[in-house]
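Troubleshooting log. The previous run stalled partway through. Resubmitting the same two chains, unchanged.
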Amino acid sequence: MDNTDRRGLGLLGWLVVWLGCAHAVSGALGLRWVQEVEWPTDLLAIGEIERAARVDVAIVGSSRSHYGLAPSAIDACLGHALGRPTVTIAANRLAASSYAADLVARGLFSGERAPRVLVVEVAPESLNGHHFELDYNVGATAELEDVPECLAAAAHGPLRAGACLRPFTRGVENLAFFLHRPLTEHAHITWMARYAGGGQYCFGTPGCEARNAQYDARHAGRWQTRVERVLPKVRRERFVDYHIEGGLPGAHLEALLARAKADGVRVLVLNLPVSAAYQAEVPEAAYETFLAWTAPAAARHGATFVDLNVPEWQARDLYVDPDHLDAGGAERMSAAVCERLVGWLR
Amino acid sequence: MMSSPRNQAAVALVLAAALFGYAAVQARRTHAENQAAYDAWVRTGVAPPAPPAVSGATLAVQERL
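Second attempt completed without errors. Output:
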């Protein structure tokens, strides 16, 4: 070994020290849930605000539950039915598979922070072992403890091993994203975390109603845009090599259900609706596989699977785009979910 | 001049400590702002401030997704 070798090893040693220190500092400062893409949820605020009471209902999922389930509407409904204020919060992530949903639930809603009820949004895409955003899911949510499992999965599937190594650099990334303060450009997302429990829409005040209307009005063209840009890609992007058994998302939905059961948490596994236009792009065989796997999996862990992706929920006028409910749809959906939770919270 | 490895390491440590210290101050401030806003709303029962409009930055993000 010559001087060049020693200098190179020295630099690598410093890099490891730097990554380790940044990881430790980032964790100690509570910056675990800083994100590079802030939308849809300010997970930093959701994660660090200590609520006035134990969380009654926690929601994890993707943008579909972000649009479709409004914590403020659920709380209004539950409060009316139960005669007490309730606390509902949503921690949805962009393009979340059940892998990401599990890791968010593990980080924010388990152990001492376990809610009374956990609502887990699932969809056929979210359980695909060949999930179209699995690299992003893993990179954005995996912890150091998840690296061995991830590398093993990467050896046999489409997942890139590089994504599995992101936990080693997340401390540096989160410090950079936090200090860049992109959330200052998304004040409404933080507002939702503070005052409405997260979600896209809020209800119960004129300000919320006005903002909901403003949002949907500004997205009046979103349906057509997504019909043209997204629907043609649904089959070839989201349902490639469709399988659940042996995939990370399916395994992590089961892990979530097992952990919730151990924590004494009731779980509602919820198949939220999509429009008929979107559903027409979902391969029938994949959808049958999804239903045939999910309901028994939920039952095995004492959870309840509810399928609301039925024709009465698939009309165009409930949606802001082909697979996301609008404000009116979210208000109705939140009430429907509330009705199913009342009995669990009495 | 800080040519010796020892000096370079000292400068690197000072810079890292400064960065971590600044991040700690900002993190504490962010946490305090979030908690104070929530506590004030829950404690007083007064309706929170009107929600900000969805920003152009968010709309731009959503258009890309």
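Takeaways: Chain B has two helices and no strands. Helices of chain B lie at 5-44, 56-64.
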